[in-house]
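Our collaborator T.R. sent over the components below with a one-line note: 'Predict the complex.' Nothing else. No constraints on interfaces, no templates requested, no preferences about which chain binds where. So this is a plain run: every listed entity goes in together, and whatever single assembly comes back becomes the starting point for the next discussion.
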Amino acid sequence: MSATPPLIEGPLIEGRVFKFGDNVNSDIIIAGRYLIYIEPQELAEHAFEMLGEGFPAKLREYDILVAGRNFGCGSAREQASTAIKGLGIKAVVAASFARTFYRNAINDGLTIVECPEIHAAVEEGDRIAIALSSGRITHRGREYAFPQMPDSVRRILELGGLANYLKATLSPEG
Amino acid sequence: MGMTIAEKILATKSGATRVSPGEIVDAYPDIVMSHTATWRSVSVMRRIGATKLYDPERLAIVLDHVSPAKTEKYAQDQQTSRNFAREYGIRKFYDVDAGIAHLVLMEHGHIKPGDLVVGTDSHCTIYGALGSLGTGIGYTEVTSVWLTGKLWMKVPTTVRFELSGEFTAGVSAKDLMLYLIGQLGADGCGYKSAEFYGEATARMSISERMTMANLAMEMGAKCVFVPPDERTMEYLQRRLRGPVSEYRPVYADVDAAYEQQIAVDLSKLEPMVACPHQVENTKCIGEVAGTHIDQAFLGSCANGKYEDLEVAATILRGRRVDPRVRLIVTPGSRQILLEAMRSGVLQTLIESGALVTNPGCGACAGDGGTLADGEVSLSTANRNFIGRMGSRQSSIYLSSPATLAASAIKGAIADPREFL
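Returned assembly:
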């Protein structure tokens, strides 16, 4: 084992952080009245608008959401992850996710990372870098480890979501 | 080491002899339910160019969230769902007249003990009232199950609840669940299965068990179980589809491993209210009594069942809803509406001043009963998230049907025990 491992390896997801607290529910992410849409851009126009003035426009200035416990709780609406993707958000890092959001994000091709430690350390506007292949986040020179997804599940995410995965696996060409 | 109910069902549905918490399995659901979201699953199917379903008999479709259609967009989406059901010969298809998917499927005998049921709704946990593993998924995943017959599932750990004592008058399963959600938090059972036991559980009606299994989702439960007993079998007998031998109730082994055991004495509970804007924000009735309300919504898969309407009617009989309050009653299903009509419950509710709507999700899903800025609604539904019923400057409180009826009379949140 090398004494000084490389700080970061593999493809990186990097950018500015917007910070949320615990229990951000899927009604807040996208209200029920907009479930008539399924396209990321249409949904993004109304994402988080329950938070009031400035939303969702403000979120477009950020790249990564960092949240506390139980992100995406409540409704199983898949549009919650689609709307976040539509905002141009590259990844959501949370202390924990509600299981329906967790599945929907993977199925939507939205990168999600479960990492309880980073929430307290990070401030709005901070830059972080996520190395998926090595399971590490760097923030202000410090590294935070997170557990890898099972390979079978990660493959869905890597293909950009479940629809792509189905297309690839159902067709005879594979 | 033995297995819990969730472990046994996931083992059976994935063709394994045993599974353990944390393990990921490919499970084959018995039923895949889609409601208003059906058209979205159809659109995914078209987008990927697939045409063949794994097994059309496993699909159940109920158009419930906005019924009948209120806009052209809804009408077109419902038409897509309807045409899909016809094209593929989906026999478990229920149109806009039927009611809330969960209640409709149980009423029609489509949910059996030991089944694995997935669907486009987080409150699929309700199927645990009949001993079935129900859990919510997104619409793309529904498409995937339509096509492949399976989905990956992580075997959850299990929390065991032991219920003793009897509810005092005016207290019910809704109060128990609001109490538990308040105590354990919105993720108190996150990723976990919940099994309910004890003499008090055995005494609960199927309707109360449904409320319990439904609300457990609000503490994050992946699935919920009330082990099937005579009451369950009696409920199923009346809705039988196929021979009784097809029902294979699943019970936990005596040496099953539980992550946590929680005991509750029901006799100690009081009427509870969840305050804006999180379900875990619960208070005893005494702390919120007197809070002014503009609207009272009696309905939803949590508390829009016949027993719920009956409880409210008992309190409202011979009394008037405060003229400042709009009492909206949305029976959970067509069968519930019929039963309430035949028994006189409907008449009592209407005479007291209630507005009765057609069956379905109604105001809980934002279909009617929209709140204006500053308005307050009390609701028997399962969620009080900001803006869920309209303006983001409106507020939602959640309660039992009894508390709701008492509050509608008073024009403010009230203790139902004053009216018993």
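Summary for T.R.: The radius of gyration of chain A is 16 Å.
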